[in-house]
Write a structure and sequence with these properties.
The complex is a heterodimer of chains A (about 290) and B (about 350).
Chain A lengths: L3 H41 L4 H6 L11 H9 L2 H29 L8 H10 L5 H14 L7 H24 L3 H9 L4 H12 L1 H17 L2 H6 L8 H11 L4 H21 L1 H14 L1
Chain B lengths: L19 H4 L5 H9 L5 H48 L17 H7 L2 H33 L5 H9 L6 H12 L6 H7 L16 H26 L3 H9 L4 H12 L1 H16 L3 H7 L12 H10 L11 H28 L5
Helix pairs in contact in B: 4-15, 5-9, 5-12, 7-13, 9-12, 9-13, 10-11, 12-15, 14-15
Chain lengths: ~290, ~350
C-alpha cells in the first residue's frame, strides 16, 4: 500500500502527460491541415508560371510582387476591390439598421402583429436564392438599377434581414422596459428613445449581426454572378472567376487576386477573433 | 452563446407585468405641459387637439411599434416576398428567360421535372454531400472541440486557426484546392510521386470515382470550423461537476462522454445539423469553381444548385439557346417546398430529443 500509492500517482501523471502530448499532436495536425493550403496559396501568388511546374513545393526563387501589380490592372482588382468594399459596407449598414429597427418594433410580443411579423421575417431564411434570383433580376431591371451597385445592395440587404431579426429580437426583448419608460416620462420621442437609450445598449448584438451578414456579403458569389451584368459593377469573387475564364493559365495572377479578396476579411477576423466567433455562432445557433 | 441553442430565446425574459402602458394615464406628461401654456379663450381648440392627441397617441401606442418594422418590411416584401410569389407564378409558364414565348402550361414544368433523371441525380448527390459532411462535422469537429475544451496550452491559437476557413469564401477555397489537386502543376500529385505513391496520382476532379468525394472534402475543409465552434460553445456550457460526479461514481472517460456529456450537447447537435442541412442543400460555389456548372465529369458532381443555374441560364450564359428559365424556377420551387418541409421536420425531431441540463 505504502509503495503502491506513489507508483500509481507517478503512472497517472505519466498517462496524463501522454494524453497531453497526444492532444497536442492531434491539434497541431488539424491546424496544419487548415493552414498549409492557405500558406501554399499565398506562396503561389508570388510564383511565375514556369515555377508551378519546376518547383511545386518550394518558395519562389524571386518573390514576384509584380503578380499583384498586374492583377490590379489585368484581373480588374482596381475595379472589383472598391466595388466589394462599397457593396459590403452599404449592405451591412442597411441590413443592420433595418433589422435593428424591425427587431425593436416587434420585440414586445403582446403588441399587435409583433409575433406574426417576427415569423414572416424569419421564414425568409428558407427561401432559396436560386428561386428568387430571376424574378429579382427582372424587378431590378424594371427599376433601372441593373448597372449600379444598388442592384446587389438591395437583395443583400433584404436577405440579411431574416438573420438580423432572428438574432436581435430576443436581445431587444431582454431590455428592461423601465429604461424606455423613464425616457418617455422625461419627454423623449420614440425615435430618440431608440437612438439614445436602446441602440447604445444593443451595440454588441448589432456588431454580431453586422459581422454575420458582412462575411457572407463579402464572399457572396451566386447573386452577383447573375445580377452584376456589367463588369464595372462586379465584386471580387465574380471578378476572379471571370478573369479565370480568360487567362486560365496565369495561376500567379489568379492567386494574387484570391489573396487580395481574402486578405481584408482574414485580417479583420484576426484582429477581432472574439467578435467574429461570437457573432457567427450567434447566427448559427439560432439558425 | 450556447444557451440560445436550447430553445428560441424569444421573449423568455419578458418578465414585466402585462403591459405598463395600458394602465398609464391617457394624456402624456409632454402634452400636459403644452396644454398648461394655452390662454383661456382657446379652450375649445385645446380640447379638440387634446382629443386628437388622445386618439393619435392611443393609436400610436397600439400600432406605433409597427412603424419601426415598416422600412425592413418594405425591403423584405419587395426583394424576397414579391420575387417568391413571382417565382411561383413564372413556374407555370414555358418562358425561356429570353424571347417572347410565354404560354401558360399549368403544372407541366413540375411534371417534366419530377420525371427527369438529372433532378434525382442532383438531389442524390446533395444527399451524399449532406450525409458525408454531417458525419464529418459530428465526428472530427466534435473530437477537435473536445480536445480544445480540455484547455490545452495555445488553445486560442488552435481555435483561431481552425475557425479561419469559415471566413474564407468558397471561391477562394475552391481555387486553392483546384491548384492543389491540379493534375499537372498541383501539389498532391507531385507529392504522391515524391513519396513513391505515383500510381495513386490522377486528375482528381475529372475522375468519375473521385470527383465527388474530393469536392465534398474541399467543402468539409471550409466548414469544419463551424462544428468546432458550435460544439465548443456547447461544451463550455456544461458544468464540470457533472462529469466529475460521473467519474466519482466509477464511470470511465468514454462512459462519461457517452452518457453525460454528449446528451447535454444535443442543442449543439441540433444547431449544427440544421446549419449543415441549409448549407449543403444550397451548395453551389464550390462545385462551380472545382468542376464547373455542368458538374463534370458526366454529372457526377452535379448538385441542385448547379442544376438550377445551368437549366435557367444555359451553359454559356443567359443568351444561350438551352436556357429554360421557367423550368428551372419550377425545379427550385420543388426544392424550396421539400427543404422547408424537411427543415421543419428536422428541427421538430431534434428538439424533441434534447435534454435539459
Amino acid at each position: 500500500m505504502t509503495e503502491a500509492a506513489p507508483r500509481r500517482r507517478a503512472s497517472r501523471a505519466r498517462s496524463k502527460r501522454n494524453a497531453a502530448i497526444l492532444r497536442h499532436a492531434f491539434l497541431v495536425f488539424a491546424s496544419l491541415s487548415v493552414l498549409a493550403p492557405i500558406v501554399y496559396a499565398v506562396i503561389a501568388s508570388f510564383k511565375d508560371q514556369a515555377e508551378f511546374f519546376a518547383n511545386p513545393f518550394g518558395l519562389p526563387e524571386t518573390w514576384r510582387w509584380e503578380n499583384y501589380v498586374r492583377a490590379w490592372s489585368e484581373a480588374k482588382i482596381s475595379v472589383t476591390l472598391p466595388n466589394s468594399i462599397i457593396v459590403t459596407a452599404l449592405s451591412v449598414f442597411f441590413s443592420t439598421v433595418l433589422s435593428g429597427l424591425a427587431a425593436y418594433g416587434i420585440s414586445r410580443r403582446e403588441k399587435p402583429f409583433a409575433f406574426a411579423l417576427y415569423l414572416v421575417f424569419v421564414s425568409g431564411m428558407l427561401v432559396p436564392v436560386q428561386m428568387i434570383i430571376l424574378p429579382l433580376f427582372v424587378l431590378l431591371k424594371s427599376l433601372g438599377l441593373l448597372g449600379s451597385v444598388l442592384a446587389v445592395v438591395l437583395p443583400y440587404t433584404a436577405l440579411g434581414l431574416p438573420l438580423g431579426v432572428l438574432v436581435l429580437t430576443p436581445l431587444f426583448a431582454t431590455l428592461p422596459r423601465d429604461l424606455s419608460d423613464a425616457a418617455r416620462v422625461d419627454g423623449a420621442t420614440e425615435l430618440q428613445i431608440f437612438r439614445r437609450v436602446v441602440l447604445p445598449l444593443m451595440r454588441p448584438g448589432l456588431a454580431s449581426v453586422a459581422i454575420l451578414n458582412g462575411v457572407w456579403m463579402w464572399n457572396e458569389f451566386f447573386i452577383p454572378l447573375i445580377i452584376s451584368v456589367k463588369s464595372s459593377t462586379q465584386t471580387l469573387p465574380v471578378g476572379i472567376m471571370s478573369f479565370v475564364g480568360v487567362y486560365s493559365t496565369e495561376w500567379g495572377l489568379v492567386f494574387a487576386s484570391v489573396v487580395v479578396s481574402a486578405a481584408p476579411i482574414v485580417v479583420a477576423y484576426l484582429l477581432m477573433t472574439r467578435h467574429f466567433v461570437a457573432g457567427l455562432t450567434a447566427g448559427a445557433l439560432k439558425g | 452563446m450556447g444557451g440560445g441553442a436550447r430553445r428560441p430565446l424569444f421573449f423568455v425574459t419578458n418578465l414585466a407585468p402585462a403591459t405598463s402602458e395600458e394602465t398609464r394615464p391617457s394624456v402624456r406628461p409632454g402634452s400636459l405641459a403644452i396644454a398648461g401654456k394655452g390662454g383661456e379663450g382657446r379652450a375649445p381648440r385645446r380640447a379638440a387637439s387634446r382629443r386628437r392627441n388622445a386618439f393619435s397617441s392611443s393609436f400610436a401606442r397600439r400600432y406605433g411599434h409597427l412603424l419601426f418594422a415598416a422600412p425592413a418590411l418594405l425591403v423584405f416584401l419587395s426583394f424576397i416576398v414579391y420575387p417568391t410569389l413571382e417565382a411561383f407564378y413564372l413556374s407555370l409558364f414555358d418562358w425561356k428567360g429570353v424571347g417572347k414565348n410565354f404560354n401558360f402550361i399549368g403544372l407541366g414544368n413540375f411534371q417534366t421535372a419530377l420525371s427527369s433523371w438529372p433532378l434525382y441525380r442532383a438531389a442524390l448527390n446533395n444527399l451524399v454531400f449532406f450525409v458525408v459532411i454531417l458525419a464529418f462535422q459530428h465526428t472530427v469537429g466534435l473530437l477537435i472541440a473536445v480536445q480544445l475544451n480540455a484547455r490545452p496550452r495555445f488553445m486560442q491559437v488552435y481555435r483561431t486557426i481552425l475557425f479561419l476557413p469559415v471566413v474564407l469564401s468558397l471561391i477562394a477555397t475552391g481555387f486553392i484546392w483546384t491548384l492543389i489537386l491540379s493534375p499537372n502543376i498541383g501539389l498532391l500529385n507531385p507529392a504522391l510521386r515524391a513519396v513513391g505513391l505515383g500510381f495513386l496520382a490522377r486528375s482528381w476532379l475529372s475522375d468519375t470515382t473521385f470527383a465527388l468525394p474530393v469536392v465534398i472534402l474541399v467543402q468539409a475543409w471550409n466548414v469544419l470550423g463551424w462544428a468546432v465552434i458550435i460544439y465548443l460553445a456547447g461544451l463550455q456550457n456544461i458544468p464540470e461537476e457533472l462529469a466529475q460526479a460521473a467519474e466519482i461514481d466509477g464511470a470511465t472517460k468514454w462512459q462519461t462522454f457517452r452518457r453525460v456529456t454528449f446528451p447535454l450537447l444535443s442543442p449543439s447537435f441540433t444547431s449544427l445539423t440544421v446549419l449543415t442541412f441549409i448549407q449543403i442543400f444550397r451548395v453551389f460555389d464550390v462545385v462551380y469553381v472545382l468542376t464547373g456548372p455542368v458538374g463534370a465529369p458526366a454529372g457526377r458532381t452535379d448538385v441542385l444548385g448547379t442544376l438550377v443555374y445551368r437549366t435557367a441560364f444555359g451553359v454559356g450564359g443567359l443568351s444561350a439557346n438551352d436556357a429554360r428559365m421557367s423550368y428551372a424556377i419550377a425545379i427550385s420551387v420543388i426544392i424550396f417546398i421539400v427543404m422547408a418541409a424537411v427543415s421543419a421536420a428536422l428541427i421538430w425531431l431534434l428538439r424533441r430529443r434534447e435534454v435539459e441540463a
